[in-house]
Task: inverse folding
């Protein structure tokens, strides 16, 4: 307590000497009213006696002043933070900000998908390359095996040829010990070979002759079939022609008879009209029913 200042007068002077707060800064009303009440009590003689009589009241005033100064400092800090904060956003700014955030998220997702697709493509390319390499290796192994088999078969063929040659030499050497060796492939005489060839030629000639005879016979049968068919067609056409001519003749006869009857009827009608007009007898030969003029009787 001895180290503290003398009284609240000096504290009040310091508080009055402090500059006023700018507009927009916040000051708690309860804290301000408490500090002002304490200062007013400290400035009165009654308050001074109370402060001198009890050090606890002075400590209370000091604590209130310190709290008031702390409130002032906190209000200054809050006002400075509000001044440094960005201005409020409008509705269009908010919409644009939300759209930008959504676009950023969409772009990030697309980048992730592209990365995954690229990784999948790389994996697929690696798989394809490995499969192609394996196929090429398999084809190479197959070609090598085929080449080895071919070489083995060729060696076997050459070995068989050489073994046959050796066997033939041994056979000739063994045969030459008893008689003159035969160096022909068939081991038969030339006369027998000529005879076999002659018989073979005769057999071929006989077969060709048989084929020629067969082809001629088939051709003759085909020609006979065509001739028979043509003759049958001619007979059928003659029959049809005769039949059609008979039908046409009958038609013409009927047509002539009909025309004669029509002519007779017309003549009778004309004669009747003439008799009526002239007043002649109706029982004349020209007027009898069924009578026909002499000039028209030969038409039947």
Result:
């Amino acid at each position: 307590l001895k180290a503290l200042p003398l009284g609240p007068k000096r504290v009040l002077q310091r508080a009055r000497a402090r500059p006023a707060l700018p507009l927009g800064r916040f000051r708690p009303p309860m804290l301000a009213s408490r500090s002002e009440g304490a200062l007013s009590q400290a400035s009165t003689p009654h308050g001074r006696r109370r402060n001198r009589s009890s050090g606890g009241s002075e400590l209370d005033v000091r604590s209130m002043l310190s709290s008031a100064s702390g409130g002032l400092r906190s209000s200054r800090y809050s006002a400075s933070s509000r001044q440094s904060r960005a201005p409020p956003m409008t509705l269009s700014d908010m919409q644009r900000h939300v759209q930008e955030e959504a676009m950023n998220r969409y772009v990030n997702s697309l980048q992730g998908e592209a990365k995954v697709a690229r990784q999948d493509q790389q994996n697929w390319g690696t798989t394809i390359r490995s499969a192609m390499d394996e196929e090429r290796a398999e084809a190479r192994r197959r070609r090598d095996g085929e080449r080895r088999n071919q070489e083995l078969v060729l060696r076997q063929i050459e070995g068989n040829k050489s073994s046959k040659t050796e066997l033939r030499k041994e056979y000739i050497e063994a045969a030459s010990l008893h008689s003159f060796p035969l160096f022909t492939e068939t081991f038969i005489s030339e006369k027998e070979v000529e005879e076999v060839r002659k018989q073979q030629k005769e057999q071929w000639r006989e077969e060709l002759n048989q084929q020629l005879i067969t082809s001629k016979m088939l051709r003759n049968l085909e020609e006979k079939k065509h001739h028979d068919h043509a003759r049958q067609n001619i007979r059928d056409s003659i029959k049809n022609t005769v039949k059609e001519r008979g039908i046409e003749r009958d038609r013409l006869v009927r047509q002539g008879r009909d025309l004669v009857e029509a002519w007779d009827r017309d003549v009778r009608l004309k004669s009747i009209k003439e008799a009526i007009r002239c007043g002649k007898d109706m029982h004349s030969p020209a007027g009898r029913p069924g009578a026909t003029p002499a000039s028209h009787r030969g038409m039947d």
About this structure: Residues 190-278 form the longest helix (89 residues). Residues 106-183 form one domain. The chain has three domains: 8-84, 106-183, 214-300.
